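A.,

Following up on our hallway conversation. Structure tokens first:
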């Protein structure tokens, strides 16, 4: 992260102020609040620390799974979601973005583990979908 000072400009009759701005070192996104920029850099998809071998692995597949949730009005309801599955290891994969946000799904039948940072069974190949 580095600070960028925006210069004064006069656009028609608008009042333009000078304010420090913080820029992500990985993707270039601008933030006015330093802590938000620090938080973003940790989870930025362009950050090399967030790269996973699963991103270009032929074993990674997009499948549909059923999530069961308790209904606050009583009972239980279910719905289908798209999740990533590693066909070599046989479990669902949690991408780093969902891991950081803490909104990964958990299933009763198959484990749902975070994507490993290193994988011995990685087989290069382009994914037909975007993670
Ligand atoms: Zn970024």
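Then the amino acids I'd put at each of the 131 positions:
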């Amino acid at each position: 992260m580095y600070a960028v000072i925006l210069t004064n400009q006069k656009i028609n009759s608008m009042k333009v102020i000078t304010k420090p701005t913080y820029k992500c070192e990985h993707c270039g996104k601008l933030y006015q609040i330093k802590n938000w920029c620090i938080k973003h850099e940790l989870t930025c998809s362009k950050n090399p620390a967030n790269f996973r071998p699963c991103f270009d692995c032929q074993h990674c597949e997009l499948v549909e799974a059923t999530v069961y949730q308790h209904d606050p009005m009583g009972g239980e309801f279910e719905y289908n979601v798209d999740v990533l599955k590693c066909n070599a290891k046989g479990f669902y994969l949690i991408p780093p973005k969902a891991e950081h946000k803490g909104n990964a799904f958990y299933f009763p039948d198959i484990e749902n583990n975070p994507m490993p940072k290193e994988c011995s069974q990685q087989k290069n190949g382009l994914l037909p979908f975007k993670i």
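The chain has two helices and seven strands. Curious whether your intuition agrees with the design.

B.
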